[in-house]
Amino acid sequence: MKGILGGIRQADQLFNLIEQNDRIMIGVSGGKDSMLLCYALKLYQKFSCSKFEIVPTILDLGFPGFDSKPIELYLSSIGLKLNVVDAKDVYQILKIQQKEDKHLPCSICSRMKKAAINKAAKNLNCNKVAFAHHGDDAIETLFMNEIFGGRVATFQPKMYLERADIMFIRPLILIRESEIISAIKEENIPAFSSHCPNDGFTMRKEMKDLLNSLYKKYPSSKNNFLKMLYNYEKEALFNDDIFYKTEKKNISLKPVISASDALIENKIRSELNIENFDDTLTRLIIYKKNKPIGVVSYNWKDKNTVIIDTISLLKEDDNIKVIVLNYLEKTFTRKITPLTTLVKKTNDKEFYKKYNYESFNKKFFIKKFDI
Predict the structure, then answer these.
(1) Which among 13, 119, 159, 338 is placed 20 to 30 Å from 323, CA to CA?
(2) Residue 166 to residues 85, 134, 157, 162, 181, Cα–Cα distance (Å)
(3) Threshold 0.85, pTM exceeds
(4) Averaged pLDDT, groups of 10, the chain, 371 residues long
(5) Residue 259 lies in domain
(6) How far apart are CA 283 and CA 368, in angstroms?
(7) 114: CATH
């Protein structure tokens, strides 16, 4: 267990996972990972620099054969009480959504479980939820997103859900699955089979097999794949080089990706007295050659409606503004039609009227693009 506790402490210090007086709900499934997490956090309470409570909780999703009693008995033996939350409607809904001769829909199940977990955490007065995802889970998710999603992404060590006012944390994020298997054997920690009908038939199993073949052929990759997830000093992707070209050669739009982008954007917004904005917006910086001269932000209201929050320049120039507006319209309509574009009302009424935007209500101008 020394290695497990060391890994939890390293993750806690690196990502600031556990803070003073946290009340942490542990998402329990009965599998080896969540059972170890309960045992490990119980031990970690003894020497953590932060005082915190843990509340093990399992969802009864209604899957046939579910039985929480063996889990309750073990957790009771180490001084923990298991909370069982009734979420049986999940299985009923999944059966309705299931297509003929197909597995139950994992994506729907995941969303419903998250909602049930958030509700349970609130009811139990917990400010954080700890999941037992480990380092190998993170690497497998990265590979799945790269192969099937065309994006470099995995889940985070901690993630704040603003609407639910809940922080998700993953204390085992720097620990390998092989370490967990060894630890549960050494400490005689029981692990129970999943009652999910899809267990063993997921894409994650294929990723696991692929990665194990890579580890066998290239042994150094095993540690390096985990290290690369937080080795930000050596990160070198294309992010800083993305400048969307417009129809005018010296005008481009750079998405706000890095911290330096955010600083430039915030400086422009401050000079323009643009109020704070929510994090659902897609944000861009307008460049003239290599000089930032304005900002753009928008978000999708629904799949056929986009709201342009602002197109603002440090020095007003309708020629540049229309270049940016045309670029956005072409980009949006390439993605989907029919399309409705709404623009927040500003002092630019005459400008938007000139380009076929009409007054929609007190808040917006509107322009529709048909097929």
Answers:
(1) 338
(2) 18, 20, 14, 7, 30
(3) no
(4) 95 95 95 96 94 94 83 96 86 67 64 86 95 96 94 93 90 97 96 71 84 96 95 84 87 92 93 79 93 94 90 92 94 88 80 89 88 61
(5) 239-369
(6) 22
(7) 3.40.50.620
